[in-house]
Amino acid sequence: MSNSNRDKTSTNSIITPINSLALKAVGCLIIVTHHYTLHQGDVHNNVFNEFSTLACGYIAVALFFFISGYGVMESEKRNRLPFTRFLRRRLSRVYIPFVITNILFIITLLFLGSYPFSIGNLLVHIFGIELIDSVTWFVPVTLLFYFFVLVLSSLQKRQLKACCMGALCIVYIILGISLFDIPFYAYVSSPAFPLGYISSLYSHEICQGLNGIFRWILLFMSAIIFALLSWAIMGHIPMHGHLLHGVIALNNIALLGIIVTVFAGRHYAWFHCKWLGDISYEVYLCHAKVFMVFIATTGSFATFHPLLLLIIIPIAYVISKLDKAASTLLTANK
User: Fold this and answer.
1) Would you put residue 2 in left (φ > 0), alpha (ψ -120 to 50) or beta?
2) Which residues contact 230 (CB under 8 A, 6 or more apart)?
3) Which of 128, 183, 255, 261 could be joined to 219 by an S-S link, Cβ 3.0–4.6 Å?
4) Domain ranges for the chain
C-alpha cells in the first residue's frame, strides 16, 4: 500500500472525530491570531493583517459552529439522550468551562486591582449574564442552538428536522436584528451551525455524491468564491451595513464548502492534532482574557510580544483539567 493510501482512507463521515479535533485546533489558532492582530490596530499594514483582522474572526467562528452542529447531530444519531442527560452533557461541555474561566480571570483581575468588585458584578460576570469580554458571545449562541437541537429531537423525519433547524436559525437572526439589537457578529456566522447539523443528517448522501471530477469542480468554485469574498471583506470592494454582513455570511458558506469537499468521505490520518484540539475550546475562552490581564498589568498592549501567545496553551490546559473534573462531578450517575 502506498503512503497516500495509508494517509487517506474512505469513510461515511464528512468529518471523522480525529479530523474534527484537528479542525478545532486550526480554528483556535485562527481566532487567537485574529484577536492578536485586532489588538495591534494596524489593520492595513499588509495583506496578512488585513485578512486576519477583517475576515479570520468570522471564518473561525463559522468553523466552530459547523463542527459543533455536525458533532451534536452525530451524537444524537448514535445515542439519543433523555432530556436531563442531554442538558447535563451539553452544560458540562460548553457552560461549565465558561464559568470556570470567568472565575479564574475575575480572581486574577481582583488581585491586580482591575476589577470593579461587587456581588452584582460577580454574579452577572461569572454566570455570563453580562460578558466580561465580547469574545465569549459564542457561548450563549451555542447554548441557544443546543436548545433548538433539544426541541427538534422528538421529530423523526430528517427532512423536517433540517427544515425546522434552518427556520429556527432564520427566526433567531430576524429577531436578533429587529427586536433584540444583538451585534451583527453574533448572528452573521450562526448559519454554520444548522449547516453542520444538516450535513450530519445527510452525511451518507453527501459522501456518495462528492465523487470524481464533481468534487474538484466544487472545491475550485468554493475556493474562488471564498477568495473573492474575502477580498471584499478586507475593504478592497466598498460595501457597508447589511450588504457587508451578507457577504460575510456567504464567505463563511464558501469556507464550509471547501471543508466539506475536502473532508467528505475521507479520513486524513496525517491531519492529527488531538492535544490542541482537546483544549481548543479553553483556548477560545481564555485567550482574550489573557490579553485583558496583560493590559491591566502593563497599561498597554503595545509591548505584547507574539511569543507571549504561547502562554495561552498551558493556561488552557490547566482550565481543561478543571473542566474535566467539574464535568465528571456534574455527569456522574447517582
Assistant:
1) beta
2) 51, 55, 251
3) 261
4) 15-202+267-328
